[in-house]
Amino acid sequence: MRRSLIAVVAFFGILYIFPLNIRPLIIPDETRYAEVPREMMATGNWISPHLAGLRYFEKPVLSYWLNALSLKIFGENAFGARFPSAMAAGISALMLFLLVRRYSVRASSALLTAFMLLTNLEVFALGTFNNLDGLLAMFLTLAMSFFFFAHQELFLPKKIMYLALCGLFCGLAFMTKGFLALVFPVIAILPFMVWEKRWKELFWITWIPLGAAVAVVLPWALAVHSREPDFWHYFFWVEHVQRFMSDMPQHPKPFWYFLPVVVIGALPWSAVFPAAVKGLRRVGFKDPFLRFALCWFVFPFLFFSASAGKLPTYILPCFPPLAIMASIGILQYFEEGHGELFSIPTIVLGMLVAILACSVVMSQVTGLFPVKAFRPVETWKWVVLSTGLLIGCLGFIWAARIPQHWKALGFLGSALVPFLFSVSFCLPDRIKEHKAPVEFLRQHAQRLQPDTVLVVDEKIVTAVCWVYKRQDIILLEWGGELDYALTYRNAKRRFVYIKPFKKLLRRTAGQGRIVIIADKNIYKDIAEPGVEPVFEDRYGDFVFAQY
Question: What is the structure's pLDDT at 244?
Answer without folding.
Answer: 60
